[in-house]
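A quick aside before the break. I want you to see a complete sequence-to-structure record at least once, exactly as it would be stored in a machine-readable document. Don't worry about memorizing anything.
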Amino acid sequence: MKLKSMIVVWTFILGFLFVLALGAVAAEKPKLFIPDKALCAKMLRFGKEAYMRGRYLDAKEYFRKAIQADPTSQTAWRYYDQAVIFGLAERVEKDAGLLLPGKSERFEQPLTGAAAPPSPPAQSETKKEPEFKIVEDEGC
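That is the input. The structure line, written in tokens, reads:
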């Protein structure tokens, strides 16, 4: 009998400690994320500069860091999306085996000489009179 009562007491004590441990874990509040607006602005500035220089993959990394600093920044998200698209285009240009790998075709000068496209054919000087003539315009 004494053994039974001892087991019951220890079961209650262990159960009580278990409930306290669960309560302590549940009482921990999650840490709130505080956006770093200054770091976001700095990374946006670096990203814009890289973007303007045509270094889209570098710009994408700067914009990604700006988003990590402040995930609520719509400007950072817009620039990041645009840099991802241009970065992908840059990779395709480099891997496509184009005439000048590593150089973007967007900044090339127009072709001249034999490689230039033919000029449009000259139009005849005679003008045709339209079959239908407006005699009196009533307006709208």
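Two observations worth writing down. The radius of gyration is 35 Å. The helical segments are 2-27, 37-52, 56-69, 74-95. We'll return to this after the break.
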